[in-house]
Design brief:
It is a single chain. The protein is of the alpha/beta class. The termini are far apart.
């Protein structure tokens, strides 16, 4: 066996169809594209959503809703979570850094304290927002709330 007489396995290669090379080839004339129309032309590209001239779905269905550009997404932390942190880690001040440090929140997120649960410890709490019930509950046990 020599490099100059190596051949691919029988049937593993196919010759390329040479379109538009005259009538004798059997693939001349329209070059397998049928007769006329956009699909027969070079550079044809169907529009996204084209439905053969029927009104496309994205134009049949009416527009609905809107996205408020001023909406702020808060990560909710309940009073029960704060109480649990204060007991286990013996904290008197809880801010976003402490919540991040102990794995309650991840990354840079806005934090809102909600009033679900019971708070017994006197805490100084820093957050981006407070619900009314949470603020009242924190102040009822002698703690302070600070909006960052």
């Amino acid at each position: 066996m020599k490099l100059n007489n190596l051949k691919p396995a029988a049937g593993s290669t196919h010759s390329r169809r040479r379109l538009g090379r005259g009538p004798g080839s059997g693939l001349g004339g329209t070059s397998t594209r049928g007769h006329k129309g956009a699909k027969a032309r070079s550079g044809y590209k169907r529009k996204i959503g084209f439905e053969g001239g029927q009104m496309p779905l994205q134009r049949r269905v009416p527009k609905a809703g809107f996205k408020n550009i001023n909406h702020k997404e808060y990560f909710a932390v309940n009073l029960s979570t704060l109480q649990n942190l204060a007991e286990t880690k013996s904290l008197t001040k809880i801010g976003i850094e402490e919540l991040r440090q102990f794995g309650v929140v991840k990354g840079k997120v806005l934090v809102k304290i909600l009033g679900n649960g019971e708070l017994k410890a006197k805490l100084d709490v820093e957050a981006n927002a407070f619900s009314k019930t949470a603020e009242e509950a924190i102040k009822a046990v002698g703690g302070n709330t600070t909006i960052i």
